[in-house]
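Table S5 (text form). Sequence records supplied for joint modeling of the two-component complex.
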Amino acid sequence: EVQLVQSGAEVKKPGESLKISCKASGYIFTNSFIVWVRQMPGKGLEWMGRIDPHTSYTNYSPSFEGHVTISVDKSITTAYLQWSSLKASDTALYFCARPGTTASLIDAFDLWGQGTMLTVSS
Amino acid sequence: SSDLTQPASVSVAPGQTARITCSGHALSQQYTYWYQQKSGQAPVLMIYKDTERASGIPERFSGSSSGTTATLTITGVQAEDEADYYCQIADSRGPHFYVFGTGTQFTVL
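The corresponding structure-token record, covering 231 residues in total, follows.
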């Protein structure tokens, strides 16, 4: 089955670090980018950044650059989203997603993880 | 600018036709993609490249685009269509490679 499975919900304190994961299966991992999307409570979807699993090339939305790090371990077909110092404002639902694998779908996200809820509170 | 604006809310009675718009300058040059997100769930791709239905999406969902406005139409609305809907573009020229619309809360009366 083609799927993205994310790590479970997290509760952290401000200033702590965190790395959440997105495990891909059922397709050739290195053939498609992985993107991360944030959804703050009651708000819309925001693209955070993307990574090419083949080369580890990344680019970030200016809104998130410098605050998060996206990485990948292609040996275990897993992408990561990492924070070195969390803030309360990082409280959100985080999704990983994959752009489609055909030319028509290359700019659309046709596969999504189930989401990881992060709560940052003192 | 790559900003995409949607109405905050749209409400329609069952069986009627609903239209959800997405407006933005970039739409005149980029394809529009539409997602449905039900409460607490991951988004689902509904429409790609302005007008194409994604795999498994019912025929009552359709998309169109003209100038700087894209439209998602639901013909014969059903209760199960109640959800949030987002438009999205890819814009490699801008700082935000992918841009989502502001989102529309769709209610079936």
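Note: Residues 47 and 53 of chain B are 5 Å apart (CA to CA).
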